[in-house]
Amino acid sequence: MDKLLSSLKININNKIYLKDPESSDLGKRIIESSIILIDQIGFDAFTFKKLGVKIGSNESSIYRYFESKHKLLLYLTSWYWSWLEYQLVFATNSITNPDLKLEIAINILTQTTTLDANYKHIDEIILKRIIINEYSKSYLTKEIDTENKEGYFATFKRLVTRLRDIILLVKPSFKHPFSLASSVIDGALHMQFIKDHFSSISDFKEKNEPTDYFKNLVFNALKS
Asked: pTM above 0.85?
């Protein structure tokens, strides 16, 4: 699996960027440093001017890659969902038992993220924190419908659809597969946010993860 993943390029909707950041060293530094800076100061306080200082480049050079910080956030979130999709596809592709396939899928979508050596300029652990804390800011905008039509959220929707398809392998007659699939993916982020920031109302302490909770939730729903 690692060898196969290393030969794959994460494909992002080219309408999100002006110049592919993967095409140059500067572009990769923009992505690498933006992840670190957004994690440190938050997306609201993040600016291209601050990013330019961090990477030792003019602010104008960043605008050659992205027209706004919103588009940069869309790029980062799309990259994460595409990367997670690859993990899901390769881990479940050869599994023929539907229950086992679904269990593995839930594991991948709800467990702690680890570093992927195939993408040295991207820290997936830090990027996951950005997804947990900032992802909603990429779609809770007035432009959501227009951007959705442009395909900016296709990777997330495709990931939900893949989990939906696996759910239907277990129970083809289940009436709410999309709702259940999105509840797992969104719910895992929400529970991690609660764990990190409102620990007094979280059932998951320290290194505990919500994976077993979602397995019980999904399989009990499919039994009903």
From this structure: yes
Is residue 223 classed exposed, middle or buried when 0-12, 13-18 and 19+ CB atoms within 10 A define those classes? exposed
Q: Is residue 56 part of a domain?
A: no
Classify residue 32: in a domain, yes or no: no
> Residue 55 falls within a domain, yes or no?
no
The domain total for the chain is 1
Q: What is the pLDDT of residues 67-107, one digit of tens each?
A: 999 999 999 999 999 999 999 999 999 999 999 999 999 99
Assess contact for 35 and 127: CB atoms under 8 A.
yes
Q: Which residue segment(s) compose the domain that 150 sits in?
A: 2-12+74-223
Q: Which DSSP category does 112 fall into? A: P
Burial zone of 49 (CB within 10 Å; 0-12 exposed, 13-18 middle, 19+ buried): exposed
Distance CA 19, CA 124 (A): 22
Q: Which of 120, 134, 110 is nearest to 44 (CA)?
A: 134
pLDDT digits (tens, 9 = 90+) for 123-166: 999 999 999 999 999 999 999 999 999 999 999 999 999 999 99
CATH number of residue 100's parent domain: 1.10.357
Cα(15)–Cα(47) distance, rounded to whole angstroms? 21
The first and second tokens of residue 123, run together, are 């820290």
